[in-house]
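I hope you will forgive my troubling you with a question about protein structure. Here, with my thanks, is the record as I have it:
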Amino acid sequence: MNSWRDTILNDFVPNVSKLTLVADPDCLLTEEKLALKLRERGFDLIEFHDPVEFRYAYESKYRLIWDRGEHTDLVVILRLQDAELESLPYDLLGAARKLSFNMGDLFPNMSYPVIEKLDRSLLDSLFEAQRKSLPDRMGDNATKDYILRHVFGVADELIVNDVELLRTLLRLHYGSLQLPLMLSERLIQVLKDHKEFKDWPLSEIIPDAEAFFDFLQERWPLFLSRQGKGNLVREETSAYGLKYPGLECLPFDHQDIKVYIDNLFLEGKLTPIEIQDFEVDAESWVRSGIATSGEDDELRISRLFDLIKKGLPTQDARYSDWTTFALKWAELSSLVYCGEHPVYQTRLREMGDMLNTTFAAWLVDHYSSLMNLPPTNPAMLHHVPRRLVRDMEDSANGQVALIVVDGLSLDQWATVRQILQKQNAHLIMRESATFAWIPTLTSVSRQSIFSGKPPLYFPSSINSTNSEGKLWTQFWEGQGLSRRDVAYQRGLGDGDAIYILDSIIHPGKTKAVGLVVDKIDKIMHGMQLGSAGMHNQIKQWCQGGFLTSLIAQLLEYGYNVWLTADHGNIQCDGKGRPSEGVIAETRGERARVYPSSELRSQVAESFPFAHEWPPIGLPANYFPLVTGGHDAFVNQGNTIVGHGGVAIEEVIVPLVKFERRTS
């Protein structure tokens, strides 16, 4: 077998059985590339989470087809052990064949408690190493060392000096290769035995990327202060003032290190510092870490363009490749829109057209494989509440708060983040991104957040947001909370955040808080100055302090605080407005929805720039016609800022966890 997927795919031959029940306790079938291959073979995947929800989807979508004598290849995935399949309803058991898969079968000589913690995207490297040379039976530590070496490329015997250690940590954290906690602890244990690293704060900077970047940030002024005589660095440079004690001078100027540091400053993971009378060559690599203005902003923008052009994901990329890329694209977009660089805005638009063509093609093939991924690192917005459940279970006080900023795009988040950092230096922001639901409409995507479900499960309210509070409460009641433990409020964005918050929640009693900040959406729908105008007005709103105050107070009350958005937005130009009267159920500027595929196709014939989006995770009789790139269903010559389509700026949205710096 060339791939671990082949061992599973061998059991999936089309037209053998209309229904297959699979015991999949390790989430193997929902791995992104395996799910894609199954769908290519004609298999539909559906998870059995809740009996009532499953029965609704099963009866409405599949039983009707079977009753007509038509065939489907339906796979029902259960997070159960093989023996537990027999607890399913009799009508399912009688109609289905039964299969089971688990990690222990794929990796028989490795410790199961260790390998089950691995992200499924990492199994390719592990299986390839095993295929080349089957290891002897291993215990926990031997399995951890094997994974560190063959999956993450970390061989502790080769980490013999400061340069090697720093390079290893940069490769892991810059490349977003998140080590499971058990592997981080193993690496810390091994490296602490090396006397060369006794001054490194290993326990803080190995498991936590934000702590590692903080460590680099406070060592950067110390490095610059040693680069020339008379250079005055406006930062605390004594060891006494350092948050992370120990090693002071890092080898930033080593040839294997400086390329990482340069990119970290370019992408906003490190912040340039102010220096007086520091003479540096125009071509010097350290310039990206020194705060100047005007000319150097243009240099950073130009270099980010080059970096992004080289890093455009390919057609076979994973969703995580796109979210990583989107964060860099957002950083560049924020710089361009917040500066007075019209020539760069033109270049940004041209590059955006190119990448959105690639992104739209990728979505057609891959979007359906995201829906059932595990919620550990949410790939889609409806995974977010289940991620919050894990936070609640892991935290001492068991309280979570979710702030949904209606319409906040990833590039606008980059602008907001800078203001939050200035207003509250104690704020730690763990930044990631996730996929919105398509069409990227508020009533579709925001309800999926608060319900924790695909839109398929709320057909009666899909055109309204009025059921959000009820859906949010129902989700948490399903997790064992009472109605009194849950709070929801929308329409926020102005006024005294602390006073408003105290009118919504009871600190210590309210366990789950859902808040909708709709200020940015209001700005967007009145915007006539394009994306640059959006960034300008968002900056003005943020400087008022509402969002900073809201986050800080929630943290003060002991909540695990998350922020996301239901969709982003994009500046676009009118290509013509359909005049179909009441045929369309939703008549947006970037998306229109029809009750049948035939009606949609009739309209689509006159608008070749639009896409007939497949009903992935959507209710029956809900057929979207969406736009991509910078096109919109408005009159020719009109420019708007809108949402609903499939551009990366609308689909990939911020997902941020906030914490307080304790020292």
